[in-house]
UniProtKB/TrEMBL annotation:
The lineage of its organism: Bacteria, Pseudomonadati, Pseudomonadota, Alphaproteobacteria, Rhodobacterales. One of its GO terms (molecular function) is DNA-binding transcription factor activity. This is Helix-turn-helix domain-containing protein. Transmembrane segments: none annotated. InterPro entries: AraC-bd_2, Homeodomain-like_sf, HTH_AraC, PchR_regulatory_protein. It comes from Paracoccus aurantiacus. SMART domains: HTH_ARAC.
Length: 294
């Protein structure tokens, strides 16, 4: 989302609006006295990516426009240059270069520009995000570019082709913490562990990569809380497997361990006995007396 199109040149506002509507849906442009602008399209991770350069006073999406569009989705907008004031769902956000804003195509929106602006908009299908957000409203989310979550989202965009689910998880964490855009690294890591511990490939190294920080930075953040990233991942998996052992008698112990994210069944059995003083099978049956080591 960081590639910059060629410098602006004069453009017919009506043509600019037509180009914008062709790729972004129903928007209305309030042009400056001497309008310049361009709309360029591309793809990122199999999704539509639109770069909008403009000196318009504002770009607006009214209630009727939002209701008329038949392909509901989210716009993940990144300010690449200049600045903008983004308004949706009662949120009024000032975007600086590098910042992100999540807008919904199903709601009215007003984007104001006091000078020349360059933005990139990634069109995200609504159903996967709606499922990730649950009852939380994603529209109006602001992520400062230098915040923990802003850096993590930028990193996820670079990995979108190979890790498509990562972006949705990060946005869901950010939406959950809308009142804390400067979410601390430890809180972001814990939320990400809660969502992805069932993935056997999750390790402290992959966790730090998702958050866009070094492994040492992540380790320091956990050390400040007298904890470790590996311990937090293991604890989440252990809590999940315990719940599965009791709630899913139709699953084998191995299946429960796999669903909880344990990559090694023999290591899981040893760790379980060390944590609970019994085997997983005994735990499931409610027989929790300590067992002798074999």
């Amino acid at each position: 989302m960081n590639h910059v199109p060629p410098p602006l040149s004069g453009a017919d506002p009506r043509r600019f609006q037509g180009d914008l509507q062709a790729v972004c849906g129903a928007f209305h442009v309030h042009p400056a006295a001497h309008h310049t602008g361009s709309v360029t399209t591309g793809r990122l991770g199999g999704l539509d990516l639109v770069r909008v350069a403009t000196n318009a006073r504002a770009i607006e999406r009214g209630a009727r426009d939002a209701a008329r569009d038949h392909m509901p989705h989210y716009f993940l907008i990144r300010q690449l240059a200049g600045s903008a004031r983004m308004e949706q769902r009662g949120q009024h956000v000032e975007l600086a270069a590098g910042d992100f804003f999540l807008a919904s195509s199903t709601r009215p929106a007003l984007f104001r520009y006091g000078e020349s602006s360059l933005q990139a908009s990634l069109h995200l299908p609504r159903p996967p995000l709606a499922e990730a957000f649950g009852r939380m409203a994603g529209a109006g989310l602001h992520l400062p570019g230098q915040s923990v979550m802003g850096r993590a989202v930028a990193r996820a965009l670079a990995r979108l082709s190979s890790q498509p689910d990562e972006l949705a998880d990060l946005l869901a964490i950010a939406v959950k913490n809308t009142d804390a855009p400067e979410l601390a690294l430890i809180a972001a890591a814990q939320d990400l562990i809660a969502r992805r511990a069932s993935d056997p490939s999750l390790t402290p190294a992959t966790l730090s990569a998702m958050l866009g920080v070094s492994l040492r930075q992540l380790q320091r953040a956990f050390s400040a809380e007298a904890a470790t990233a590996s311990g937090a991942i293991a604890a989440r998996r252990m809590a999940t497997v315990c719940a599965l052992l009791r709630a899913r008698p139709d699953l084998t112990v191995t299946a429960c361990a796999g669903q909880a994210g344990f990559p090694d069944i023999s290591r899981f059995t040893r760790d379980f006995r060390a944590a609970h003083g019994c085997t997983p099978g005994q735990y499931r049956r409610g027989t929790t007396q300590p067992t002798a080591a074999l």
